[in-house]
Specification:
mainly alpha, hpI Integrase, Chain A, three-stranded antiparallel beta sheet, two-stranded antiparallel sheet, 54% helix
């Protein structure tokens, strides 16, 4: 008897005797074709990654129109290492981008292609190396504690949005929060336990929920701000809970965009004739912590870094600002007497 006949007889017998029960797999829900990218990163990071990816694919395929989400994976699969090399040469020679900017693009492609690789496809970016760069100390030291004080002392504080902007700057400095963390902050994320206040971060770079202790100075500022908003818009404490702390519109309770946050910090920087970003404020508090004796691990934990190598730049900044080595140079000058 042939094998397929045995199989048929076995199935028939099992059916008649009810000895075998065939379990059916649960039907999977339809998902988008690019659900392959299961990356636990912040919403802004993912958005940036796909921005870089689309630019890359548009260059390789010479596309004039926009690439849809459904087309991304299909186009990525056909990419070869030569395409990557050609694109990097284009970024260096034609677009004259800085090495740090090119590294962002390469890192984005590496992260996305790693997800492709997990699903059995070739990874043409695996062996592409990042350019060697040094952290930009000039940018790290662009904004100081005194600069922030000067901005706050001279910034126009009329109206609820000016009040909001001032507290945004104070919060960025006293917490070291990232842009996405501060734009997603809700009033219910301000927590109190045993007389201490904490900020719960739900939209972090790592994708993991984190908590930040609040400085006593900032707690008082938040309490005054909360009281002001409640009175201005006739809200109860319960109604305030699910509202954004720093919305683009108080009436509509809409989230402030990154672009709007960047613009308002730039406007505040004009008070001291400096072109600054929200990240410059994060640099400022990290440098200030280092100057005031915080060690590498304390600064790392405060900023939410996963690697101390990222934090080391602030220790270097400290040595530059303190200028202790200058006191060891002999006092007499080198001119002829």
């Amino acid at each position: 008897m042939k094998n397929n006949e045995i199989e048929i007889l076995t199935n028939d017998a099992a059916t008649k005797n009810n000895e075998v029960t065939t379990l059916r797999k649960k039907k999977k829900k339809n998902s988008e074709k690019n659900s392959i990218f299961n990356i636990y990163l912040s919403e802004k990071t993912i958005k940036d990654y796909f921005f870089y990816l689309r630019n890359f694919l548009n260059y390789v395929y010479e596309e004039e129109g926009s690439i849809t989400d459904e087309e991304l994976v299909k186009l990525m699969i056909n990419i070869e290492k030569d395409d990557i090399d050609d694109y990097i040469a284009h970024l260096v020679n034609d677009r004259a981008l800085k090495k740090t900017s090119i590294n962002k693009i390469i890192s984005s492609l590496k992260s996305l292609y790693k997800e492709i690789e997990k699903n059995g496809y070739e990874n043409p970016v695996r062996h592409i190396r990042l350019f060697k760069t040094s952290r930009d100390l000039e940018n790290i030291l662009k904004l100081s504690y005194q600069d922030i004080k000067s901005i706050l002392n001279n910034y126009d504080s009329i109206g609820e949005k000016s009040y909001r902007n001032i507290l945004i700057l104070q919060t960025l400095f006293y917490t070291g929060m990232r842009s996405s963390e501060i734009t997603n902050l809700l009033f219910k994320d301000i927590l109190q336990r045993n007389g201490e206040y904490y900020i719960r971060l739900t939209k972090t770079k790592s994708g993991k929920e984190q908590y930040k202790p609040m400085h006593e100075y900032l707690v008082k500022k938040f309490e005054n701000y909360k009281h002001y908003i409640k009175n201005l818009f006739s809200l109860t404490s319960e109604e305030l809970e699910d509202r954004y702390v720093f919305p683009s519109s108080f009436e509509k309770n809409t989230m402030l965009s990154y672009r709007a946050l960047y613009s308002l910090i730039q406007e505040m920087g004009k008070v001291i004739n400096k072109d600054i970003s929200p990240h410059n404020v994060r640099h400022a508090i990290a440098t200030e912590l280092s100057l005031n004796g915080a060690d590498l691990l304390e600064i790392r934990d405060f900023l939410g870094h996963t690697d101390t190598r990222v934090t080391e730049i602030y220790i270097n900044a400290k040595s530059i600002l303190e200028k202790k080595v200058l006191t060891k140079i002999p006092v007499p000058d080198l001119e002829k007497e």
